[in-house]
Amino acid sequence: MEVAGVTANQLMLTAVIAERGSLRYTPAGLPALDLRLEHESTLEDAGQRRQVKAVLKAVAFGAQAERLAVQALGSLWRFQGFLATPGSAKHPVLHIQNFQQD
């Protein structure tokens, strides 16, 4: 959904690469990589400190997939992208558009 010309589906997440599939190629020949990211932090919520953990499936395409394919498991990154729920899946997947060392 667009609100006043601003894209509302943007996510920034600091997480470690917990699992990484093999680099594959789409039928159009575009590199693709499936990942599982894990986040853990302490945040303030309703005036209380709260331990937060999250596990999220992610996918990267093109140059981002090639760059992520060689990064170490357990390494910490700041990921930027958008969420989408593929096909008949029940959970959203982070589509990584950019990432940098945190």
UniProtKB/TrEMBL annotation:
- Alphabetically list the UniProt keywords: DNA replication, DNA-binding, Primosome
Q: Note the InterPro entries from the entry.
A: NA-bd_OB-fold, Primosome_PriB/ssb, Prisomal_replication_PriB
Fill in the subunit field for this protein.
Homodimer. Interacts with PriA and DnaT. Component of the replication restart primosome. Primosome assembly occurs via a 'hand-off' mechanism. PriA binds to replication forks, subsequently PriB then DnaT bind; DnaT then displaces ssDNA to generate the helicase loading substrate.
As for family, the record states:
Belongs to the PriB family.
Give the function comment from the record. Involved in the restart of stalled replication forks, which reloads the replicative helicase on sites other than the origin of replication; the PriA-PriB pathway is the major replication restart pathway. During primosome assembly it facilitates complex formation between PriA and DnaT on DNA; stabilizes PriA on DNA. Stimulates the DNA unwinding activity of PriA helicase.
Name of this chain's protein: Replication restart protein PriB
Instruction: Tell me the organism.
Output: Variovorax dokdonensis
